[in-house]
């Protein structure tokens, strides 16, 4: 990550990421996060109120709870629980692709239950994916129904058993095969992290897209894994050892898919600078208790929800493409999924972005617990921008530049 004069912080990130902040405040509509984990029970109660604080109006909720969400009725019940926590967010729901998913259920209930799509997890590759997919052919009937209904297939694009630096690229033929077999099916390749995946998505028509996370725009494998472990692993054909417990040096930067090389990160950055409409925001914000992240092996996931827009503004400003942020963080997804793009309207909430540095908290503490909570991305480091959610009025345009 680029430097701002801050060296390593509490989460082991190499620096804070961004150059000097702009002198004038910015204003923009709230954003849409097309990939987030809100968990369940006490964790859901803890993180769901942070959605709006992070500048979001709309989230696509992942289904890998325990047990996973596999029916429209379960999705509706999950959504009701989230609405009770914060009714001012639009929750788009997904099902977990498994034998329990029914085409008849989708046809009869998906729309009324706010089910937007189905998430595919290869078996065992990430958190709560033990019931994941081993073969896609058995789900062709489900894909036919999804294509008919306009539902979206969300793919975690890694091949189990393949070394972490290669697992995403190895998945691309499966991704292309599904599109070839179901050319009208809306497909999202989630949290792309490689130049190869970027190129594969760019070759696709408009009904195929991909999400990009803030942390994959900032991290490389060097920010996660011990340098000597990388060197040893790269000396073997299979790159073995990159995700073993002793190899992860900075667990709060550890996620699936693993951050890749500088070349891969540069490809992600270039595509957002280009404003390619295939690509849109999906934070993959994935909260885990601090002890789970700092255990051996560490839980996979980076927590970005409460500061999501602040991370994004900092990245886009550093890359000199702040004018592309609004479309990446809302407009492209709105066009892909078919909802209305956010606008600045009087008395509706908006995000005011101040060029005021802020220190990322070292931890978001659980209520009543002094030392336990969730450690955010870039903990204890400095961001050059602060985001405030407030009601829009035309007078804001006199003091702020609109994105």
UniProtKB/TrEMBL annotation:
Pathway note: Pyrimidine metabolism; UMP biosynthesis via de novo pathway; (S)-dihydroorotate from bicarbonate: step 3/3
Protein origin, superkingdom: Eukaryota
EC number: 3.5.2.3
Domain Amidohydrolase-related: 135-197
InterPro entries: Amidohydro-rel, DHOdimr, Dihydroorotase_CS, Metal_Hydrolase
Protein family (similarity comment): Belongs to the metallo-dependent hydrolases superfamily. DHOase family. Class II DHOase subfamily.
Protein name in UniProt: dihydroorotase
């Amino acid at each position: 990550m680029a430097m701002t004069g801050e060296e390593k912080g509490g989460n082991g990130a190499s620096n804070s990421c961004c150059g000097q902040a702009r002198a004038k405040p910015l204003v923009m509509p709230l954003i849409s996060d097309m990939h987030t984990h809100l968990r369940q029970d006490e964790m859901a109660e803890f993180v769901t109120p942070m959605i709006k604080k992070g500048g979001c109006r709309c989230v696509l909720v992942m289904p890998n709870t325990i047990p996973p969400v596999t029916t429209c009725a379960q999705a509706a019940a999950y959504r009701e629980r989230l609405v009770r926590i914060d009714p001012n967010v639009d929750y788009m729901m997904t099902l977990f692709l498994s034998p329990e998913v029914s085409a008849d259920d989708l046809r009869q209930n998906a729309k009324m239950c706010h089910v937007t799509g189905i998430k595919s997890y290869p078996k065992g590759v990430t958190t709560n994916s033990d019931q994941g997919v081993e073969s896609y052919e058995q789900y062709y009937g489900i894909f036919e129904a999804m294509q008919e209904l306009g539902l979206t297939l969300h793919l975690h694009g890694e091949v189990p058993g393949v070394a972490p630096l290669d697992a995403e690229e190895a998945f691309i033929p499966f991704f292309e095969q599904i599109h070839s077999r179901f050319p009208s099916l809306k497909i999202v390749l989630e949290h792309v992290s490689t130049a190869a995946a970027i190129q594969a998505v760019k070759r696709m028509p408009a009904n195929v897209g991909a999400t990009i996370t803030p942390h994959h725009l900032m991290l490389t494998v060097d920010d996660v894994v011990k340098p000597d472990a990388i060197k040893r692993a790269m000396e073997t054909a299979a790159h073995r050892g990159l995700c073993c417990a002793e190899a992860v040096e900075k667990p709060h930067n550890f996620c699936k898919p693993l951050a890749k090389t500088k070349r891969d990160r540069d490809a992600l950055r270039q595509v957002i600078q280009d404003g390619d409409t295939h690509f849109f925001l999906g934070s993959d914000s994935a909260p885990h208790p601090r002890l789970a992240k700092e255990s051996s092996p560490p839980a996979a996931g980076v927590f970005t929800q409460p500061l999501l827009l602040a991370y994004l503004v900092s990245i886009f400003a550093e890359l000199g493409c702040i004018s592309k942020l609004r479309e990446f963080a809302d407009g492209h997804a709105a066009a892909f999924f078919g909802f209305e793009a956010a606008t600045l309207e009087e008395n509706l909430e908006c995000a005011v972005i101040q060029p005021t540095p802020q220190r990322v908290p070292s931890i978001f503490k659980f209520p009543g617990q002094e030392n336990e909570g969730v450690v955010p991305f870039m903990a204890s480091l400095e961001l050059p921008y602060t985001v405030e959610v407030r009601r829009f009025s035309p007078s804001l345009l006199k003091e702020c530049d609109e994105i």
